[in-house]
Protein backbone atom coordinates (compact mmCIF):
# COMPACT_ATOMS: atom_id res chain seq x y z
CA UNK A 1 0.00 0.00 0.00
CA UNK A 2 1.43 3.35 -1.05
CA UNK A 3 2.14 5.77 1.81
CA UNK A 4 0.21 9.05 1.73
CA UNK A 5 3.03 10.86 3.54
CA UNK A 6 5.97 11.92 1.34
CA UNK A 7 9.56 11.86 2.62
CA UNK A 8 10.08 14.79 4.95
CA UNK A 9 13.37 15.72 3.26
CA UNK A 10 11.40 16.29 0.07
CA UNK A 11 8.90 18.51 1.88
CA UNK A 12 11.69 20.53 3.50
CA UNK A 13 13.37 21.05 0.13
CA UNK A 14 10.08 22.05 -1.51
CA UNK A 15 9.18 24.53 1.24
CA UNK A 16 12.65 26.14 1.17
CA UNK A 17 12.62 26.57 -2.61
CA UNK A 18 9.05 27.90 -2.55
CA UNK A 19 9.97 30.45 0.11
CA UNK A 20 13.31 31.46 -1.38
CA UNK A 21 12.28 31.16 -5.04
CA UNK A 22 15.81 29.94 -5.64
CA UNK A 23 17.38 26.46 -5.56
CA UNK A 24 20.83 27.70 -4.58
CA UNK A 25 19.55 29.75 -1.64
CA UNK A 26 17.41 26.84 -0.49
CA UNK A 27 20.43 24.55 -0.74
CA UNK A 28 22.51 26.89 1.42
CA UNK A 29 19.77 27.06 4.05
CA UNK A 30 19.49 23.28 4.27
CA UNK A 31 23.25 22.66 3.94
CA UNK A 32 22.83 20.67 0.74
CA UNK A 33 23.96 21.08 -2.84
CA UNK A 34 21.61 22.62 -5.43
CA UNK A 35 21.55 19.31 -7.28
CA UNK A 36 20.45 17.51 -4.10
CA UNK A 37 17.64 20.04 -3.60
CA UNK A 38 16.58 19.61 -7.23
CA UNK A 39 16.57 15.84 -6.78
CA UNK A 40 14.37 16.07 -3.65
CA UNK A 41 11.88 18.36 -5.40
CA UNK A 42 11.75 16.08 -8.45
CA UNK A 43 11.18 13.12 -6.14
CA UNK A 44 8.26 14.95 -4.49
CA UNK A 45 6.78 15.88 -7.87
CA UNK A 46 6.96 12.23 -8.89
CA UNK A 47 5.35 11.18 -5.60
CA UNK A 48 2.48 13.66 -6.07
CA UNK A 49 2.29 13.26 -9.83
CA UNK A 50 2.08 17.03 -10.27
CA UNK A 51 4.48 19.76 -11.34
CA UNK A 52 5.30 22.07 -8.43
CA UNK A 53 7.55 24.67 -10.07
CA UNK A 54 8.01 26.39 -13.39
CA UNK A 55 11.77 26.69 -13.89
CA UNK A 56 13.47 29.15 -16.21
CA UNK A 57 17.07 30.24 -16.58
CA UNK A 58 16.53 33.18 -14.24
CA UNK A 59 13.63 32.33 -11.93
CA UNK A 60 11.64 29.67 -10.12
CA UNK A 61 7.88 30.13 -9.75
CA UNK A 62 5.25 27.95 -8.14
CA UNK A 63 2.65 26.40 -10.40
CA UNK A 64 -1.00 26.73 -9.42
CA UNK A 65 -0.85 23.18 -8.05
CA UNK A 66 2.40 23.97 -6.25
CA UNK A 67 0.99 27.10 -4.62
CA UNK A 68 -2.08 25.16 -3.44
CA UNK A 69 0.09 22.40 -2.01
CA UNK A 70 2.32 24.92 -0.23
CA UNK A 71 -0.70 26.54 1.43
CA UNK A 72 -1.83 23.15 2.69
CA UNK A 73 1.49 21.87 4.06
CA UNK A 74 3.13 25.07 5.34
CA UNK A 75 0.97 25.19 8.47
CA UNK A 76 1.76 21.59 9.34
CA UNK A 77 5.47 22.19 8.84
CA UNK A 78 5.30 25.30 11.03
CA UNK A 79 3.58 23.22 13.71
CA UNK A 80 6.34 20.59 13.52
CA UNK A 81 8.95 23.32 13.76
CA UNK A 82 7.26 24.90 16.78
CA UNK A 83 6.86 21.52 18.49
CA UNK A 84 10.52 20.74 17.89
CA UNK A 85 11.60 24.11 19.24
CA UNK A 86 9.43 23.64 22.32
CA UNK A 87 10.83 20.15 22.88
CA UNK A 88 14.38 21.50 22.72
CA UNK A 89 13.49 24.16 25.29
CA UNK A 90 11.69 21.69 27.53
CA UNK A 91 8.28 23.28 26.89
CA UNK A 92 5.54 20.71 27.28
CA UNK A 93 2.28 22.67 27.38
CA UNK A 94 2.30 24.69 24.16
CA UNK A 95 -0.74 26.10 22.36
CA UNK A 96 -1.40 28.21 19.28
CA UNK A 97 -4.40 30.55 19.18
CA UNK A 98 -5.59 32.28 16.01
CA UNK A 99 -7.99 35.20 16.23
CA UNK A 100 -9.73 37.87 14.21
CA UNK A 101 -7.65 41.08 14.35
CA UNK A 102 -10.20 43.29 16.12
CA UNK A 103 -10.94 40.79 18.89
CA UNK A 104 -7.23 40.12 19.40
CA UNK A 105 -6.35 43.82 19.53
CA UNK A 106 -9.22 45.25 21.55
CA UNK A 107 -10.39 42.41 23.80
CA UNK A 108 -7.86 39.61 24.12
CA UNK A 109 -4.50 41.38 24.32
CA UNK A 110 -5.49 43.84 27.11
CA UNK A 111 -6.48 40.83 29.27
CA UNK A 112 -3.77 38.36 28.27
CA UNK A 113 -1.54 39.15 31.23
CA UNK A 114 -4.19 37.66 33.52
CA UNK A 115 -4.18 34.39 31.59
CA UNK A 116 -0.39 34.20 31.75
CA UNK A 117 -0.44 34.80 35.49
CA UNK A 118 -3.06 32.10 36.04
CA UNK A 119 -1.37 29.58 33.71
CA UNK A 120 2.39 30.25 33.80
CA UNK A 121 3.24 26.74 32.58
CA UNK A 122 1.45 27.17 29.22
CA UNK A 123 3.55 28.34 26.29
CA UNK A 124 1.23 30.48 24.18
CA UNK A 125 1.70 31.62 20.60
CA UNK A 126 -0.82 33.76 18.74
CA UNK A 127 -1.61 34.98 15.25
CA UNK A 128 -4.35 37.18 13.83
CA UNK A 129 -5.90 37.43 10.39
CA UNK A 130 -9.29 37.59 8.74
CA UNK A 131 -8.95 34.06 7.34
CA UNK A 132 -10.29 31.13 9.36
CA UNK A 133 -7.73 28.57 10.42
CA UNK A 134 -7.52 25.25 8.61
CA UNK A 135 -7.34 22.74 11.45
CA UNK A 136 -6.30 19.98 9.07
CA UNK A 137 -2.95 21.76 8.69
CA UNK A 138 -2.20 20.90 12.31
CA UNK A 139 -0.93 24.34 13.32
CA UNK A 140 -3.82 25.96 15.22
CA UNK A 141 -5.36 24.68 18.45
CA UNK A 142 -8.13 27.29 18.85
CA UNK A 143 -9.64 29.69 16.33
CA UNK A 144 -11.51 32.79 17.49
CA UNK A 145 -13.95 33.59 14.69
CA UNK A 146 -16.42 36.32 13.86
CA UNK A 147 -19.61 35.84 11.88
CA UNK A 148 -22.59 33.55 11.67
CA UNK A 149 -21.80 30.31 13.50
CA UNK A 150 -22.00 27.56 10.91
CA UNK A 151 -18.94 25.34 11.09
CA UNK A 152 -20.00 21.67 10.95
CA UNK A 153 -17.82 19.05 12.65
CA UNK A 154 -16.27 21.70 14.93
CA UNK A 155 -17.01 22.63 18.54
CA UNK A 156 -18.37 26.19 18.68
CA UNK A 157 -18.58 28.17 21.96
CA UNK A 158 -20.17 31.62 22.09
CA UNK A 159 -17.86 34.07 23.85
CA UNK A 160 -20.43 36.70 24.85
CA UNK A 161 -23.75 38.33 24.04
CA UNK A 162 -22.87 41.62 22.38
CA UNK A 163 -24.67 44.94 22.21
CA UNK A 164 -24.36 46.77 18.91
CA UNK A 165 -25.22 50.47 19.02
CA UNK A 166 -24.23 53.88 17.63
CA UNK A 167 -20.96 55.04 19.20
CA UNK A 168 -19.20 58.37 18.72
CA UNK A 169 -16.76 60.71 20.43
CA UNK A 170 -18.32 63.06 22.99
CA UNK A 171 -17.13 66.09 21.02
CA UNK A 172 -18.75 64.76 17.81
CA UNK A 173 -22.08 64.29 19.57
CA UNK A 174 -21.95 67.83 20.99
CA UNK A 175 -20.80 69.40 17.74
CA UNK A 176 -23.60 67.82 15.70
CA UNK A 177 -26.21 68.22 18.46
CA UNK A 178 -27.42 64.65 18.11
CA UNK A 179 -30.54 64.15 20.22
CA UNK A 180 -32.90 61.81 18.36
CA UNK A 181 -32.35 58.74 16.17
CA UNK A 182 -33.54 60.80 13.18
CA UNK A 183 -30.53 63.07 13.65
CA UNK A 184 -28.30 60.23 12.45
CA UNK A 185 -29.80 60.62 8.99
CA UNK A 186 -27.86 63.90 8.65
CA UNK A 187 -24.40 63.12 10.05
CA UNK A 188 -21.44 61.10 8.69
CA UNK A 189 -21.91 57.38 9.35
CA UNK A 190 -19.07 54.87 9.55
CA UNK A 191 -19.72 51.43 8.11
CA UNK A 192 -18.07 48.19 9.18
CA UNK A 193 -18.47 46.30 5.94
CA UNK A 194 -18.14 42.83 7.48
CA UNK A 195 -20.40 43.47 10.46
CA UNK A 196 -23.10 40.89 11.17
CA UNK A 197 -25.49 43.79 11.78
CA UNK A 198 -25.52 46.95 9.67
CA UNK A 199 -26.93 50.49 9.92
CA UNK A 200 -30.19 49.61 8.10
CA UNK A 201 -30.90 47.07 10.86
CA UNK A 202 -30.65 49.81 13.48
CA UNK A 203 -32.83 52.28 11.59
CA UNK A 204 -35.43 49.56 11.08
CA UNK A 205 -35.42 48.80 14.82
CA UNK A 206 -36.08 52.50 15.49
CA UNK A 207 -39.02 52.40 13.04
CA UNK A 208 -37.23 54.83 10.76
CA UNK A 209 -37.58 54.28 7.04
CA UNK A 210 -34.03 55.08 6.00
CA UNK A 211 -31.33 53.17 4.18
CA UNK A 212 -28.09 55.13 3.86
CA UNK A 213 -27.33 55.63 0.20
CA UNK A 214 -23.64 56.01 1.00
CA UNK A 215 -21.33 56.12 3.96
CA UNK A 216 -18.77 58.76 4.81
CA UNK A 217 -16.24 56.04 5.70
CA UNK A 218 -16.12 52.28 5.18
CA UNK A 219 -13.79 49.81 6.91
CA UNK A 220 -13.51 46.04 6.87
CA UNK A 221 -12.24 45.81 10.46
CA UNK A 222 -14.05 46.87 13.62
CA UNK A 223 -10.94 48.36 15.21
CA UNK A 224 -10.53 50.72 12.24
CA UNK A 225 -14.17 51.83 12.36
CA UNK A 226 -13.84 52.49 16.09
CA UNK A 227 -10.59 54.42 15.61
CA UNK A 228 -12.31 56.57 12.97
CA UNK A 229 -15.08 57.34 15.45
CA UNK A 230 -12.53 58.20 18.14
CA UNK A 231 -11.00 60.70 15.71
CA UNK A 232 -14.39 62.37 15.33
CA UNK A 233 -14.95 61.35 11.73
CA UNK A 234 -18.47 60.04 12.28
CA UNK A 235 -20.71 57.60 14.13
CA UNK A 236 -19.79 53.91 14.24
CA UNK A 237 -22.31 51.10 14.67
CA UNK A 238 -20.26 48.71 16.75
CA UNK A 239 -20.12 46.31 19.69
CA UNK A 240 -19.69 47.79 23.15
CA UNK A 241 -17.74 44.64 24.10
CA UNK A 242 -15.16 45.18 21.36
CA UNK A 243 -15.19 48.96 21.83
CA UNK A 244 -14.82 48.68 25.62
CA UNK A 245 -11.27 50.15 25.79
CA UNK A 246 -12.47 53.34 24.06
CA UNK A 247 -15.65 53.53 26.13
CA UNK A 248 -13.81 52.99 29.41
CA UNK A 249 -11.39 55.84 28.67
CA UNK A 250 -14.13 58.18 27.47
CA UNK A 251 -12.90 58.36 23.90
CA UNK A 252 -16.28 57.03 22.75
CA UNK A 253 -19.74 56.95 24.27
CA UNK A 254 -23.20 55.68 23.29
CA UNK A 255 -24.79 58.35 21.13
CA UNK A 256 -28.15 58.14 22.91
CA UNK A 257 -28.75 58.19 26.65
CA UNK A 258 -31.41 55.49 26.31
CA UNK A 259 -28.65 53.19 25.09
CA UNK A 260 -30.83 51.25 22.67
CA UNK A 261 -28.89 48.43 21.10
CA UNK A 262 -29.28 45.38 18.89
CA UNK A 263 -28.25 42.07 20.50
CA UNK A 264 -26.04 39.63 18.63
CA UNK A 265 -23.76 36.64 19.14
CA UNK A 266 -20.91 36.97 16.69
CA UNK A 267 -17.59 36.00 18.33
CA UNK A 268 -16.87 32.31 18.92
CA UNK A 269 -14.21 29.93 20.18
CA UNK A 270 -13.91 27.21 17.55
CA UNK A 271 -11.89 24.00 17.71
CA UNK A 272 -12.07 20.30 16.77
CA UNK A 273 -13.53 18.11 19.49
CA UNK A 274 -10.26 16.17 19.75
CA UNK A 275 -8.51 19.35 20.93
CA UNK A 276 -10.71 19.36 24.03
CA UNK A 277 -8.61 16.46 25.30
CA UNK A 278 -5.66 18.82 25.77
CA UNK A 279 -5.69 20.50 29.22
CA UNK A 280 -3.99 23.67 27.98
CA UNK A 281 -6.67 24.15 25.30
CA UNK A 282 -9.51 23.81 27.76
CA UNK A 283 -7.72 26.08 30.23
CA UNK A 284 -7.73 28.82 27.62
CA UNK A 285 -11.33 28.17 26.58
CA UNK A 286 -12.53 28.22 30.19
CA UNK A 287 -10.55 31.38 30.94
CA UNK A 288 -11.98 33.30 27.97
CA UNK A 289 -15.56 32.27 28.78
CA UNK A 290 -15.19 33.03 32.48
CA UNK A 291 -13.59 36.40 31.79
CA UNK A 292 -16.29 37.32 29.28
CA UNK A 293 -19.04 36.25 31.70
CA UNK A 294 -17.53 38.37 34.48
CA UNK A 295 -17.92 41.54 32.43
CA UNK A 296 -21.56 41.45 31.22
CA UNK A 297 -22.89 44.75 29.90
CA UNK A 298 -19.94 46.51 31.55
CA UNK A 299 -20.45 49.81 29.79
CA UNK A 300 -24.22 49.66 30.07
CA UNK A 301 -24.05 49.24 33.86
CA UNK A 302 -21.58 52.10 34.17
CA UNK A 303 -23.80 54.45 32.17
CA UNK A 304 -27.08 53.16 33.56
CA UNK A 305 -28.13 52.22 30.03
CA UNK A 306 -29.30 49.23 28.14
CA UNK A 307 -32.52 48.74 26.26
CA UNK A 308 -32.69 46.11 23.55
CA UNK A 309 -34.30 47.05 20.26
CA UNK A 310 -34.77 44.10 17.96
CA UNK A 311 -35.17 44.87 14.27
CA UNK A 312 -38.51 44.12 12.73
CA UNK A 313 -38.76 41.31 10.20
CA UNK A 314 -37.80 42.48 6.74
Automatic annotation (TrEMBL):
PROSITE patterns membership: HTH_LYSR
CDD domains: PBP2_GcdR_TrpI_HvrB_AmpR_like
Domain spans labelled HTH lysR-type: 6-63
Pfam families cross-referenced by the UniProt entry: HTH_1, LysR_substrate
Database matches in Gene3D superfamilies: Periplasmic binding protein-like II, Winged helix-like DNA-binding domain superfamily/Winged helix DNA-binding domain
Keywords: DNA-binding, Transcription, Transcription regulation
Family: Belongs to the LysR transcriptional regulatory family.
Protein's recorded name: LysR substrate-binding domain-containing protein
Organism: Variovorax humicola
Top-level taxonomy: Bacteria, Pseudomonadati, Pseudomonadota, Betaproteobacteria, Burkholderiales
Amino acid sequence: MRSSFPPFACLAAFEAVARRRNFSLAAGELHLTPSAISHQVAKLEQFLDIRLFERTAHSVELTVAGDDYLNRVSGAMAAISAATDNARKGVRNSMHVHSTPSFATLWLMPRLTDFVKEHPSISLSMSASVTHSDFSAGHTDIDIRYGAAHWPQLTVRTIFDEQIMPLASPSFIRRHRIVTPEDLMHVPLIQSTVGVLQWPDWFTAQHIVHTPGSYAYRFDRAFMALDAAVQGLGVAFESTSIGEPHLRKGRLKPVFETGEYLPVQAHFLVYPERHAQRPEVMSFVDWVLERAASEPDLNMRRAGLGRSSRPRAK
